[in-house]
Amino acid sequence: MNTEQFQTHSFIKGLQHSSLKPSIYALCDYELLTKYNTTLDQYLQICKQHNVKIIQYRDKVNNLNIQKENLNYLKNNCNLPIIINDKIELISYADGLHIGQEDLDSYVKNNRVLSLKLIRKKIGDKILGLSTHNEIEILEANNFDIDYIGLGAYKTTTTKDVKNQLGDKLSYLAKISKHPVCAIGGVKLSDIIDNTSYNVIGSGLFTH
Questions:
Q1: Fold entry, domain 3-207
Q2: Which of 26, 62, 152, 198 is the most exposed place for a label (fewest CB within 10 A)?
Q3: Is the peptide bond before 153 cis (omega within 30 degrees of 0)?
């Protein structure tokens, strides 16, 4: 799936370099579901209330069989793209994959370009996103066959230990990317961040 298809698929075509309010990319973290005593059905209702355009499923708790069941539930009960976090072995249950910088280093040692090519080959034309944190990583990502980048952290977050907060610098860095940009890390529903296409919201969906 190329960038234009990703934009169309996600109803955000033309937003990646505008100042319009970004769409909502929901981070369905199973630990957060447990923390807030929320079922997947309740979570989907929350997503509907906020007009969410895409959902990423992240699960560091359950075994693979339960994760497959949860992904199937999401796929069967909402008409949104479902992205799996990190676990390429679950790609057949999702519409796409989101990977971190460390994942590029784990496939082929000292060859990030080949790693990305192998990942792309395995997932085919499904959506592929990559986390970035600075200008060097963005420029590198510009040469990758991916559909979007996650860029952050914007501010402090309750789900991860943030060492590098971009703050207002995120808008400048986002402009460098040739791919649509998803603002990640401490982003609120009400935040308007220039040059981005999505606000990636995790705990903010539960506390709003």
A1: TIM Barrel (3.20.20)
A2: 62
A3: yes
